[in-house]
Amino acid sequence: MEFTIIIAIATMGGLGFIFAGGLALADKKLRVEENPLIGQVNEVLPNANCGGCGSAGCYDFAVRVVDGKVSPGGCPVGGDETAQIIAQILGVEAGESVKMIPKILCGGGSKEAVKKSADYYGPVSCKVASLVSGGDKLCFYGCLGGGDCVSACPFGAMIMNENDLPEVIEELCTGCGLCAKACPRNIIEMHPADRDVFLFCKNQDDPKRAKEVCSVSCIGCGICARKSDGGIEMINNLGVINYDKLDVSKIPFEKCSTGAIKYLNGKEIPVN
Amino acid sequence: MFLLNHTKSFNGGVHPTENKSLTENLSFETMPVPKVVIVSLNQHLGKPAKPIVKKGSEVKAGEIIAEQNGFISSPVHSPVSGKVTKITASENVSGFPKDAIVIETNGVSEFVKMPPLDSENVTAEEIIERVKTAGIVGQGGAAFPTYVKLNPPKEKKVDVVILNGCECEPYLTRDYRFMIERTDDVVSGLRLIMKAAGVEKGAIGVEDNKPEAIEKLREAVKKYSNISVEVLKTKYPQGAEKMLIKAVTGREVPPGKLPFDVGAVIQNIGTAIAIHDAVVKGEPQLTSAITVSGFGINNPKNVIANVGTPLGDILDFCGGVKDDAVKVVVGGPMMGIAQYDFSAPVMKATSGILVLTEKEINDNKQTPCLRCGKCVDACPLNLIPTKLARLSSLEKFEEAEQLDITVCMECGTCTYTCPANIPLVQWIRFGKQRVMTLQRERQTV
Description:
The structure holds 2 protein chains of 2 kinds.
Chain A: H1 2-30, H2 36-44, H3 58-67, H4 79-90, E1 100-104, H5 126-129, H6 148-152, E2 158-160, E3 166-168, H7 178-182, E4 188-192, E5 197-199, H8 207-213, H9 223-226, E6 232-235, E7 238-241, E8 261-263
Antiparallel strand pairs in A: 1-4, 2-3, 5-8, 6-7
Chain B: E1 28-30, E2 36-40, E3 50-51, E4 58-59, E5 64-67, E6 76-77, E7 82-90, E8 98-105, H1 124-133, H2 146-149, E9 160-165, H3 174-181, H4 183-197, E10 201-207, H5 211-220, E11 227-232, H6 241-249, E12 264-268, H7 269-281, E13 287-293, E14 301-306, H8 311-317, E15 325-330, E16 337-338, E17 352-357, H9 374-378, H10 385-393, H11 397-402, H12 413-417, H13 424-444
Parallel strand pairs in B: 1-14, 9-10, 9-12, 10-11, 13-17
Antiparallel strand pairs in B: 2-8, 3-5, 4-7, 5-6, 7-8, 13-14, 15-16, 15-17
Helix pairs in contact in B: 1-4, 3-5, 4-7, 10-13
């Protein structure tokens, strides 16, 4: 009886030694040297795996930074601070990293935009609602209010306000840009945080219809573009701001009859 | 041939409450010409027609006001005599504003017809040319320009023309009334289609809930040995092209292929009537036959209205909408499009206007998927709706593509059958559209 137990233990023990030896040998022979920098960079990244940088996740970004394929400032979530640390680790210059903030370029919440004479029943999602008669607002360009951007935000930095428009909580926002990608109407645009002139409308309808469907729409009158020296251009009944040429002092903001174009001048976007 | 004489059909499908008794015994009533018609330039699949009239032009009924623009396109005729007041984007039954020609009628009843052709001596080319100039589009719902379908590619061997008399959508009785009231014209239309496509064999598929129509058609085709009337099981979507081919011929259309590929041409009963009128009488299609039904309308009717008549005028003609009506749908209840504006005009391919009450629609709360598999059993195309819908909502388009999301014809059988009230077809529609965009992008690269 005892003898059987000894044989069993000896066999298991022997096998264990043989396999351990094999593994030890494999570790020596087949070892893949990973650049230690990758681990170091990965540790300082936010590890939110949001994909905002365009890589598959934070580890992938670390690999690409170390390879020199992207600049240390490429992580929009980490911002300047992380960029500096990564640059230190790699011993290179940190590229310019500008903090980007999403701007919701539609002012037509439930108070301003005119609703269709029918309600929308169906999945509460902008991307589905936009296929069914373009949602329940008469405007075919504006915010649908379904909150796809809110559910796309991995940082909880977006909420729907009481006017059924999304709002960005800038302290929480990391500028990853996932909300902009989620919007089927392309209302959300990423802008440098210090920009302060925006046209809060995307409506390209003729002036008559634009006025009918919403009280804060751009009706394409072109009064803002006329003396802007190319700072604002009128394309398809809609003002398009060319930020390189924009001279704020030349734009008559107070003359915009619907108040669609706004100069924020450091102020928060007024909640309508 | 069969041991058991069971009715022909396909696998899957559902049988919703028919509610056809509301209108099935009512003859067509012709609506008076409305004061203003809004003639959409997008009445067919493909490129919109190009207007050839201007604001202020005087037009006569039957005159071409917008010409064909490209291969898959169709000309548009003025349905009334009057004056063009504007050409503008206007509300459309598709739910999105589309360009349309607005004509104010002047009460003169002039009708510019084309020379009638002799149905026995006419050639295939003459029929196709006539169908093209008369602007005939498929009446089954998709409004595909008919002349393209009559002209199958030379390398495809087509051997049968099937007329679709299933009318599997609940409520609708328009095709049924055509089969009862204009039986001989249906058969004449079918013979013209067979001639145009160069096919010897013809069949008319009718569901077995229409015994009177089957009897009348059988009587009418007695003298033609090459035309048969096929009785099919009453089941939705029996009238879908692929299902109909499977039921009548036993052939299955592979994913991504067309009826041509299995040697069949499918046309709707309404299309056959339109082809008969265009060839034998020389009339382009200026009116559409529409079933106005549902428990929310005062007097359900089968109506013949001018193309371009606003929905509101037709609803008024049928006694107006009841107080408890909650939803207006253009088309059938399964695949039709809900409307938000009664100024949207009727189109060539409009087959029904339904005014539904609370009881007839399902707005029950959505609950989580039970994994019961009812949608999988019911899908006539053997897809996995529950998985496709989930993949679409998670935007996993590549996986959805591998599971053949683009094969889906959006019949809505899955959503109808789902006990958890999940909007399956709505999500699949979204996913399908995105996948098709991806495929187009890949092609251009």
